[in-house]
Amino acid sequence: MSTVYYVDETAGVDAPGNGSESAPYQSLAFALFTHGDAVKLLIRKDPNTLYDEPTQSALKKAKKGAEGLEKKKKKAEELAEREAKEKTAERERREKLIEESKKIQLKEDVSLPKATKIVHLAPLRSKRVRVNGWVHRLRSQKDIIFIVLRDGTGYLQCVLSGLVARTYEALTLTLESTVQLTGTLQEVPEGKTAPGGHELIVDYWRVLGAAPGADDAFTNRLNEKSDPSILADLRHLVLRGETASSVLKLRAALLAAFRETLTAHSLTEVTPPCMVQTQVEGGATLFKFDYYGQPAFLTQSSQLYLETCLPALGDVFCVQESFRAENSHTRRHLSEYTHLEAELAFINFDDLMTHIEAIICETVDRLLANPTSAAYIKQLNPSFKAPARPFLRLSYVDAIKWLNDHNIMHEAEDAEGNVIKEQGLTVMVPHKVGDDIAEAAERQMTDIIGTPVFLYGFPAELKAFYMKKMRVDGEGHVFTESCDLLMPGVGEIVGGSMRIDDLDELFAGYKREGIDPTPYYWYTDQRKYGTCAHGGYGLGVERLLAWLANRYTVRECSLYPRWPGRATP
Ligand code: 4AD
C-alpha cells in the first residue's frame, strides 16, 4: 500500500511540514511537488472537516502548481551554481592577481624631496611630493585604489592606479596601516571635492607598517556600534577618529588662545606642584598618598600657590591638572581635570567678574578669528555663536527666588543633611537661602536662561575657608564675594572669589573648616608680609571645551579621561 500524505488547507504548512497527519501540508501542489503522484493524498478544508480524496479538478490544478514549483527549484539551483562559479572565478582571479602582484617591483625616484606634512601641501600643487601617514579610509573601484591618508595635520585623498595599484601591498592593504606615498599633487577637478582641494596621484609608494586584516582588523575592534565601556577601553584607538581628534585639536587651540589672552592681560604663567600637603576645596575630595612616609595629596587646586606668587611675579595663571576624589559619575565630573587658574592682586569683586568675562570672550574671539580653530568649532558645533557681553549677573539669593518662581525644587534634607525619602521617592521642597543649588537645578536654570550667567554671593557655609565675606543678612546668613560662571548645556565652568586678606579673618576661616593652620604657614605669611585685596578663579578646561565643542560629556574633552573606577588606558 502506498504511503498517505495529508493536506489541510487552513492549518497545514508546506515547509517545514512533512505531510503526516500531525503535520499536514497546506497545499496539494506542494505535496505533489515533494512526493510525486504515486502516493495517496488526502485533503481537508480545515481541522473541522474530514480528510477525503482530492477531486480530479483539484488534482489537475495542483499538478500545474507542482510543475511551477519544480521550475522555480531548477532556477534556484542554476542561480546557486552560477554564483558558486563566479565566486570561484573571482577567487581564482584574485589569487592570480596576487601571484602576479608579487612580481611587481615599484622603482623609487631617489631624487625626491623629504616627506612633507599634509598641512603644508597647499603651495606644492602640481609638484611631486612625498607624505607619510595612516590609511584613514580605503576604497577600491575596478583597478583604482582610493586612500584617504591621515597624518595628524590633515587628510589627503590619494589615488593609486595602474601598476602602483597592482602590487602585493596594494591588494592586501588594510585600514590604519602606515604608508609612504609619493606622487604629483593635483587640484581636484571642478565639481569634485577633497580635503584641501587637491589629491595625490601616486606613482610610488610603500607600506611602512601593515595593520592586521580579518578578525583583528581595526573595524572589528571598534565601530560606531561599540559599547561605551569598549570605547573607554579602546580610547587609544578612538582618538584616531575624526571627531575625537578634532576635539583634541580644538583643545590645543583653546589652551594656546587662553595663554595668549592671559599673557596679553599681563599675567605670568607658573607651574605649581601637583604633590601637596594642604587642601583647598575640602578634605572629602582629596586623593591621599604616601610621600616618603608622610601623608600627601594630589592637588585639588593650585590657588593657594598662585596667591603666593602675587608679591613676586604680579598677576599669575597656571594650567595644571587638578584631582578630585569624588564619587561623581555625572557627565561633567572627572577625577583628574585640567584646571586653568588665575590670581590677580589689587582688584575688587566687580573687577574679578569683568576679568573672567574678558578672558573667556577674548579667547573665544581668538579661536573664531583663526581659520583652523574656527573650522574645528564649525565642524563640532555648527550653531556656535560667541556669547554676548556683559554676562548676566544673578545673586545667589535672587537665584533661589528664580528657582522657586520656576518650580524647580530642592531635595528635602533632615537635620543631618540626609535626603528624605517617602515610599522610595525623594521628597522635593522649594529652595531656601542656605541650600546648595544641586547640579540638576543649576543646569535647568542655565538652560532656561540660555546665556552665560554669573551666580554670585554664595553663603559662607557652602564655600571654602579662604573666601572673603561680602555681607550678613537679617537672618544671620553670611555671604561671600564668590562667583560661579554657568554656561548653557554644561553648567558651572568657572569658580572664583575674592580671598580673605585679613590675617585674623583667615585664622577664623581655618577654624570654621576645622583646618590645622600649621602646614599652611606659607599661605598665612602672605597675609603677614604685605597683604592686599586679591581674587582669582579656576576654570575647568574640559567643561569649557564641552560647551565650545558641544560635547555631551567632559569625558570626550580629555585625552585619557579618569572617572571613578577608570584609570585605563
Ligand atoms: O569650583 P572649584 O572647586 O574651585 C576651585 O578649585 C578654586 N580653588 C579655583 C580657584 O579659585 N583658583 O573648581 C573650579 C572649576 C569648576 O568651576 C569646574 O569648571 C572645574 O574646576 N571642576 C571640575 N571639572 C571637571 N571635573 C571635576 N570633578 C571638577 N571639579 C571642578
From TrEMBL:
Record keyword Ligase present: yes
One matching Pfam family: tRNA-synt_2
Xref: CDD domains: AsnRS_cyto_like_N, AsxRS_core
A GO molecular function held by the record: nucleic acid binding
Class of enzymatic activity (EC top level): ligase
Gene Ontology CC annotations of this record: cytoplasm
Main localization category: cytoplasm
Catalyzed reaction equations: tRNA(Asn) + L-asparagine + ATP = L-asparaginyl-tRNA(Asn) + AMP + diphosphate + H(+)
Spans through the membrane: none
Aminoacyl-transfer RNA synthetases class-II family profile domain location: 248-561
Nucleotide-binding keyword on record: yes
GO biological process, one term: asparaginyl-tRNA aminoacylation
Protein family per UniProt: Belongs to the class-II aminoacyl-tRNA synthetase family.
Protein name in the entry: asparagine--tRNA ligase
Organism: Gloeophyllum trabeum (strain ATCC 11539 / FP-39264 / Madison 617) (Brown rot fungus)
